Amino acid sequence: MVSTVARPYGRAMIPELYHTFIDWIGDGTGLPDTILHIHAGMAVLMVARIVTRRSLGSFVPWSFVAAAEAFNEIMDRLNFGSWRWADTTSDIANTLFWPTVICLGIRLRPMLLARDAARVKMPDEG
């Protein structure tokens, strides 16, 4: 249905258009918002990894996810007119959880491997 209400074009319309696009993705996939945030976080992480050619253990790909989620939440804030804190914190947690786990896991892996290798090389004292 086409709206007959005259709307100003420009910056005020961008959050509304963005939210319409996000709703279209949700309606098109049939997935709940929680799952979409998890998938979006992982997709941004992988694309950032490919584009920047930086390791997932660096915080560069992770920072792209954080920036994308910040943009998403700011657009929600502008569209709805106020922060919806329960929704905002849930969205941030769902988007950043797995990228954070992957980043920290890859970053900490060399330390854990070195520690395990040192244990194996220790002579028996008994």
Jot down its keywords.
126 residues, mainly alpha, 75% helix
What is the percentage of strand-forming residues? Answer: under 5%
Multimer state: single chain
Low-confidence spans: none
Q: What is the C-alpha radius of gyration, as a whole number of Å?
A: 21 Å
Protein name: VanZ-like domain-containing protein
What does this structure look like?
The chain is an all-alpha fold and 126 residues long. The chain has one domain (13-119). The chain is built from 4 helices and no strands.
Write the layout of secondary structure elements.
Layout: H1 14-29, H2 33-52, H3 59-80, H4 85-121
Helix pairs in contact: 1-3, 2-3, 2-4, 3-4
